[in-house]
């Protein structure tokens, strides 16, 4: 019998993959969404080794497509407000990541997007090339294909720096303005031993500067002098407390708010100052426009404020410097977090004095009249099964605590959202295939917190559903016990393609065929059957009358741990 000490899993030498994963967890990462390949052996070994020892690593999720992995990390980061990680397979996996990276960078969401790198060496080292594919998958610059879609990219060059590089990546991802970063990890380096006492970095606390008080004072004076100031926002409600802060400000001063292409609940949708969701007919009387966390406050080819109306912009990057062309002429652009700016502006404005009270009251009456002209759920024609009718029923029937991710088709102007975390809109980049994955990431974040009674719903067009790689999504829902509801607005067409064609050529040759050329998605498959094939509940609904019962049955299925899908066969 040997006298040598027994080697246990916990006593095995530390490798770079151990250091990397431990550091991610210590840095605040909760989840790793993995699309594994031949570059993952050391990551897999680290997880298997850590299990019995009780070391806390990011929760691993097996994901069968890169687009889904990034979307799940994106939804998870939206929910937790912390960077989460997606890891994919070398160059080809990175290629499939690019669309999700574009969504994240335009949405300002912190993610650590990582990929293995095909082995650097051809022989002689642990982790060297052992498959024919290792030659063809190498690139001269793997990070180059994703570089424009991330804030920072790097390739690990020393095994002992795996922890330092992980912290560096997380710090940059979460530093304002937040966004995705990319890290490639060569297979040999992940497998190399590193000293157990390698120095460990901790996260940097990045303190965000306050808005310029002089600029805030100037804006406050403009608001006091304006007859009809208007705030346009798409994402000021993303920060905790942002919705309540904006509500307090606009209620005190009777400032109407347009939530254009809303991606969060910036103001309760039924708030007296919420006048609508499209500036096209709502800017005509404005003599001051404040664009708050809004990359496109209006579309100049469609509508414009009065020529004499000043435009002020507020955001962490108010010029959206990563957009190649953006020509909104702002009188001033304030660099600040939306929440800090709102609070500073409210403090500078104070309460309306006697000389302003009459103007504020008159403006409130005008806003009430504008709100009265908005579309109401009560006026929707439920005899025709349109996207509008379906949205009205869904808004009425879904529980108030539901979380909705909208990939285009749900009519948010008919919703009742009144607080943060109830709604996440489609990203400005428009990379289809986002909604189901984001909903699953939100469900994963909730499940880790023990929240199981908050239904998560993805609203999707039929084209968007196909882009989501639905088999991969339904599999992940079942495999990770993340029940969610998918609602498909099935009009058998690419609505955006058709509408754009008809708008540009209303009397053209394409209009003769109703703009359906290259937009026709018929015949529609049995979408409900795809969900049922993964153990879920799936129904096809053909009328608004039948929709409430289908919603109730879907909610019952989800409460029992099943995913659900409702296929709405609506009019075009």
TrEMBL record:
GO molecular function: acetolactate synthase activity; flavin adenine dinucleotide binding; magnesium ion binding; thiamine pyrophosphate binding
Domain Thiamine pyrophosphate enzyme TPP-binding: 416-567
A biological-process GO annotation: L-valine biosynthetic process
Keyword Transferase carried by entry: yes
UniProt entry tagged with the keyword Transferase: yes
GO cellular component, one term: acetolactate synthase complex
Thiamine pyrophosphate enzyme N-terminal TPP-binding domain sequence ranges: 17-142
Record's keyword terms, sorted: Thiamine pyrophosphate, Transferase
EC number(s) on file: 2.2.1.6
SUPFAM superfamilies named among the record's database cross-references: DHS-like NAD/FAD-binding domain, Thiamin diphosphate-binding fold (THDP-binding)
Domain (Thiamine pyrophosphate enzyme central) ranges: 216-318
InterPro entries: DHS-like_NAD/FAD-binding_dom (IPR029035), THDP-binding (IPR029061), Thiamin_PyroP_enz_cen_dom (IPR012000), Thiamin_PyroP_enz_TPP-bd_dom (IPR012001), TPP_enz (IPR045229), TPP_enzyme_TPP-bd (IPR011766)
Class of enzymatic activity (EC top level): transferase
NCBIfam families, sorted: PRK08327.1 (NF006203)
Annotated family: Belongs to the TPP enzyme family.
Protein name from the UniProt record: Acetolactate synthase large subunit
């Amino acid at each position: 019998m040997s006298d040598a000490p027994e080697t246990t899993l916990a006593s095995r030498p530390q490798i770079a993959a151990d250091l990397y994963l431990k550091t991610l967890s210590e840095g605040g990462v909760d989840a790793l969404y993995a699309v594994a390949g031949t570059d993952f052996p050391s990551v897999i070994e680290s997880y298997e080794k850590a299990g019995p020892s009780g070391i806390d690593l990011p929760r691993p999720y097996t994901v069968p497509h890169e687009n889904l992995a990034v979307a799940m990390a994106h939804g998870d980061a939206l929910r937790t407000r912390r960077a989460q990680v997606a890891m994919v397979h070398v160059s080809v996996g990175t290629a499939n990541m690019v669309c999700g990276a574009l969504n994240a960078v335009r949405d300002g969401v912190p993610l650590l997007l990582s990929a293995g790198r095909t082995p650097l060496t051809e022989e002689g080292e642990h982790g060297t090339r052992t498959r024919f594919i290792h030659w063809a998958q190498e690139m001269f610059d793997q990070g180059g294909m994703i570089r424009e879609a991330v804030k920072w990219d790097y390739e690990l060059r020393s095994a002992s720096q795996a922890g330092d590089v992980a912290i560096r990546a997380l710090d940059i991802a979460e530093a304002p303005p937040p966004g995705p970063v990319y890290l490639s990890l060569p297979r040999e380096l992940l497998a190399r031993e590193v000293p157990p006492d390698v120095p460990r970095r901790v996260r940097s606390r990045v303190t965000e500067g306050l808005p310029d008080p002089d600029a805030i004072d100037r804006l406050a004076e403009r608001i006091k002098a304006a007859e009809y100031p208007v705030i346009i926002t798409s994402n000021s409600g993303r920060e905790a407390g942002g919705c309540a802060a904006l509500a307090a400000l606009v209620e005190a001063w009777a400032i109407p708010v347009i939530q254009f292409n809303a991606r969060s609940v910036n103001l309760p949708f039924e708030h007296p100052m919420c006048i609508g969701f499209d500036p096209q007919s709502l800017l005509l009387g404005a003599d001051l426009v404040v664009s708050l966390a809004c990359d496109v406050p209006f579309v100049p080819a469609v509508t414009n404020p009065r020529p004499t109306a000043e435009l002020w912009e507020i955001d962490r990057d108010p010029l959206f410097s990563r957009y190649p062309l953006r020509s909104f002429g702002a009188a001033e652009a304030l660099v600040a977090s939306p929440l800090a700016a709102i609070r500073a502006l409210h403090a500078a404005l104070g309460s309306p004095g006697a000389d302003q009270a009459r103007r504020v009251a008159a403006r409130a009456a005008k806003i009430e009249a504008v709100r009265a002209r908005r579309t109401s759920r009560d006026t929707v024609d439920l005899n025709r099964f349109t996207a509008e009718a379906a949205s009205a029923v869904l808004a009425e029937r879904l529980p108030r605590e539901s979380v909705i991710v909208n990939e285009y088709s749900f009519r948010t102007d008919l919703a009742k959202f009144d607080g943060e975390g109830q709604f996440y809109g489609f990203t400005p980049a428009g990379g289809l295939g986002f909604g189901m994955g984001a909903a699953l990431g939100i469900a994963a974040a909730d499940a880790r917190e023990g929240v199981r009674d908050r239904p998560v719903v993805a609203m999707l067009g039929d084209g968007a559903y196909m882009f989501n790689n639905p088999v991969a999504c339904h599999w992940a829902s079942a495999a990770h016990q993340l029940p969610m509801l998918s609602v498909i607005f099935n009009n058998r067409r690419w609505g955006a393609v058709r509408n754009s064609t008809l708008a540009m050529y209303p009397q053209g040759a394409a209009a003769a065929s109703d703009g359906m050329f290259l937009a026709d998605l018929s015949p529609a498959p049995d979408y409900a059957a795809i969900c049922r094939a993964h153990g879920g509940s799936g129904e096809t609904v053909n009328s608004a009358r039948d929709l409430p019962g289908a919603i109730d049955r879907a909610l019952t299925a989800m409460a029992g741990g099943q995913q659900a899908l409702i296929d709405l066969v609506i009019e075009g």
